[in-house]
Amino acid sequence: MPNLYDFTVKAQDGSDSPLSQYAGKVVLVVNTATGCGLTPQYEGLQKLYDTYKDQGFVILDFPCNQFAGQAPGSAEEINTFCSLNYQTSFPRFAKIKVNGKEADPLYDWLKSEKSGLLGKRIEWNFAKFLIDREGNVVQRFSSKSEPEKMVVDIEALL
């Protein structure tokens, strides 16, 4: 049975980035966009990361342009936007597709582990998957779930 650590994704420079490097951590996987009404969630995500990173928590940011083209720009432009506006410091990867025939295998697996509002489909930007230290999906949060509402669930896994 696969877990998070079995997947390799693309880093922003296009190189392979094995997720096994996060083995033993509590992980929050998020598909993000810089031009979305939910983009201010970056602030709450950064607060979660700052609060819990020293306890073995990490957020993996996957920009996704599949929802109304709300993640335009290059990796450098996305990084600049996030750094200037939200001071994000958690790992960010190459743009990814989360739905459809071109969906990344990571997202196919995540969706098969936990359904959401639209069944297995990702409903919008900022859908979140919480993964335990063994690499198993524990919970899926909708796009509208504010990061601060996940504190109890994160703390339970830490």
What is this structure, in a nutshell?
This protein has 158 residues and is an alpha+beta fold.
What does this structure look like?
With 158 residues, the chain is of the alpha+beta class. It contains 4 helices and 6 strands; from the N terminus they run βββαβααββα. The mean pLDDT is 95.
Alpha carbon gyration radius: 14 Å
Largest sheet descriptor = 4 strands, mixed
Helical fraction equals 25-40%
Q: Major sheet: order of its strands?
A: 4-3-5-6
**Computed structural class:** alpha+beta
What is the CA-CA span between the terminal residues? 23 Å
How many helix segments? 4
- What is the N-to-C succession of helices and strands? EEEHEHHEEH
Beta-strand content: 15-25%
Name the poorly predicted regions. none
Q: What is the residue-mean pLDDT, rounded to a whole number?
A: 95
Shape designation: globular
Strands, total number: 6
Write the layout of secondary structure elements.
Blueprint lengths: L7 E3 L5 E3 L7 E7 L8 H12 L4 E7 L11 H12 L18 H9 L14 E4 L5 E5 L9 H7 L1
Parallel strand pairs: 3-4
Antiparallel strand pairs: 1-2, 3-5, 5-6
What structural keywords apply?
single chain; 158 residues; alpha+beta; four-stranded mixed beta sheet; two-stranded antiparallel ribbon; 4 helices; 6 strands; globular
